[in-house]
Amino acid sequence: MAKTTDREALRETLKIKLDYDQLTNCMRCGFCLPACPTFRETGLEAESPRGRIALMKATVDGIMGPDVPFEEQMSHCLGCRACEPACPADVKYGQLIEQARDAIEEHTTQHRGWVKGVRKLVFQGLFPHPKRMELLGKGLKLYQRSGLQTAVRKTNALKLLPKQLADMEKILPEATGKGVVKTLGTHVPAKGQKVGTVGMFRGCLMDAMFAETNRKTVELLSEAGFDVAIPEAQNCCGALHAHSGETAQAKELAKRNIRAFREAGVDAIISNAGGCGAILVEYDHLLHDEPQWREDAAWFASHTKDISTILWNEGRPLPFAEPVGGEAAAVRVTYQDSCHLKNVMKGGASPRSLLGALPGVELVEMKDAGSCCGSAGIYNITQPEMANRLLEKKMKDANGTAAHYIVTSNPGCLLQMKLGIERHASDKRMEAVHIVDFLHERMAARG
Amino acid sequence: MLDNAIARQLRDIVGASWFKDDDQTRVAHSYDGTPMLQALPDGVIYPGSTEEVAAVMRVLHEHRIPVVSRGSGTNLCGGTVPIQGGIVMVMHRMNAIVEVDLQNLTATVQPGILTKAFTEHIESLGLFYPPDPSSMAISTIGGNIAECSGGLRGLKYGTTKDYVLGLEFVLASGEIVRTGGKLVKDVAGYDLTKLLVGSEGTLAIVTEATLKLVPPPKHKKTMLAMFSDVYDAARTVSKIIENRIIPATLELLDNPTIKVVNDYAKLGLPTDAAAMLLIEQDGELETVERDIELISGICREENATEVSIARNHEEALKLLTARRSAFTALARLRPTTILEDATVPRSKIADMVLAINRIAEKHRVQICTFGHAGDGNLHPTATTDARDTDEVHRVEEAFAEIFEAAIAFGGTITGEHGVGLVKSPYLEWKLGEPGVAVMQSIKAAFDPHNLLNPGKIFAKSARRRVVLERG
């Protein structure tokens, strides 16, 4: 666990960072408890949003010290934000947990061995630098195609990695090493009559590892009638930074993105990753204490939409192909919510509407589709035990649908579902797929 | 803090991970759903069986350590705040449905099962368990029994007390008692089963309950009526009952609540309406349709300005939105929401609503009233800020007057939330000194050393509301 030098100094920082109004707004009705994955898993009040808010308030009020268990408890939270729609009093729990983590991070002098390495690599060395992310994609491609992957797997070299990382290695997507701009350029015109102009938020993980999905996102948008701009000056959304207590860096990234899309002159910013989209729609909050950014941040936040939302609500209907073979058995799909798309962007309905409208596709809801799969940013790497418990439960529900595909809206969820299938699927032919790829594949070829 | 030797004994009984006395756990069990109350326990225990509860009680009894048993801690009367420290006993691990008896139409459950999980299971079997407190998604059956929870269906179907047929409970001494059973009739001595329902954890710890199930209604219809005069609405309620119609739901929203709900949910309600009634009837199709027809006639006769009947399930849900969002809309107004449950005979609903509005105005506080008009159970809800001591004081004064008014109308200080800590100073107003004395002797007979949820129901002195500083 992280080491903190001075507990009283941490308490003072918590006092400054935590929004005391929000702490007071929690009326402890307990309605958030059944929505919280860690509470449901453990049955312990301290592992619930109501409990965590009480702990935050108690440290500020001087009832308890911000001790090591307190720090651990703050990192147990998945940040899935399922508690927020359940809250009658509209407590901004997501903001509170980020403020607590931000305070803790400020006083952390030392992280546990490999967590430290991962954090540094992710937050400073990699994600803020699109070029390095591209390189990562290329490296991954080389690793996968050169025979090194096969060699590594055969020689058991993976045993040198912590188990969770070794498992993640197996489910890495086939990388292309070529981002969406390299493939399509920075502008793609609308097909047919133009509905509007949108900016594509490519995301760093998406563009390095799922560049094909990014390309197909642009093609779907173009097909639905949108001119698509992909501003090159954009960068990482900053979500992982903000969720892990690296607020200052998240703010810098946000400003660069706002500038890039403002300059591009678009009507909307389109994200195809719930995890990115959720922070994009909260840039106004992230930059709330910087008045000179207020207007631009508010514009950016209110004009960010998920790909499914814009396709379903504003786009021209996509030309889907009728299933071949007429009466052939329908393709059965189930949809695993991206917590942040559902709980923060309030966009859980459109993916279902799109899937439901596909010819030859049967959408079967799994039990608790809205509860977190355990991926949660880098949670499945930093808190593998809880993440694995949640994943096992999730796969039980997914298996219950006997679906051919688990469709998701976020790269983290997608990788976690792949891991879930690898470990727990009752039928190994089950596939995890991003909704964009699934829709794109079902479009009729156009002459 | 608890003596190490005692903590070790407790861990030996339940297993090391099911007794906790770290700061984090103690803070997380220092409150319940009641605003402005907080007190730390010395430890928290999660028993897994009746035998463990009994063994734990023997240890606590020997060392005279107080214990507060609880489910999810959602009550609104300060009922599970451990004001004298000691142990909080969380029943969540004992959450099994032991048996559903389809011949006798009973279910036997452990107390820690969530109300909603239970009712969903029962409904999947084609049966019905009517009590539906608003917190049912997280409340437990044990908690419902301790508080005798009501809900929206109280008028037609009764409350928790009408569905508890038998109990297993552990006394303060650690002895196990079983009462009642799968029996419709049982007069073997005092009715200890009913006595335990609503006893707020002060008499014994319930470890198992046998509940009555009923066949579910086949059809349901929903309607809404708006009134420009609250007396018209209240008279409508009485008229419906007079006409020998008992609706499944008969809910009222007063003008301040209608305004707040409309602002929040943008329902396009007439904000000048003085009152709104939401009515549901269930049963056989023919009866439901006839009753709804009769009720809308009565509403019109009593000057309803608008009557709408839902034509389908979606429309019914829409009508229900106003009532369902009342609590949420109110909770978002101000940081602190104090929800009370003064109850009057249903013929006095209009007088009570007006009295509440008058009292709120007098004390310069905002109180919105909604609730179960059909059974006289109102929820005057004050929105305030715990940090504004002056205003909170005025809210307390206003509620004292509201309780007084309720009793004057032949009502009571609490219809379904319980006395707990918050309403203990007013109990004597309702019962008189001899009434309280009888209850205290019952308490002493069950729990001579005052270990079970001490300091609840009975106040040290009547009047003056108790508020701890932090919370």
Automatic annotation (TrEMBL), chain B:
The keyword Ubl conjugation belongs to this UniProt entry's keyword annotation: no
Residue ranges of every copy of the FAD-binding PCMH-type domain listed in the record: 37-216
Gene3D superfamilies xrefs: 3.30.465.10, 3.30.70.2740, Vanillyl-alcohol Oxidase, Chain A, domain 4 (1.10.45.10)
GO MF, one example: FAD binding
Cofactor(s), by name: FAD
Keyword Flavoprotein: yes
Keywords: FAD, Flavoprotein, Oxidoreductase
PANTHER family linked to this entry: GLYCOLATE OXIDASE SUBUNIT GLCD
Family: Belongs to the FAD-binding oxidoreductase/transferase type 4 family.
Name of the protein in its database record: FAD-binding protein
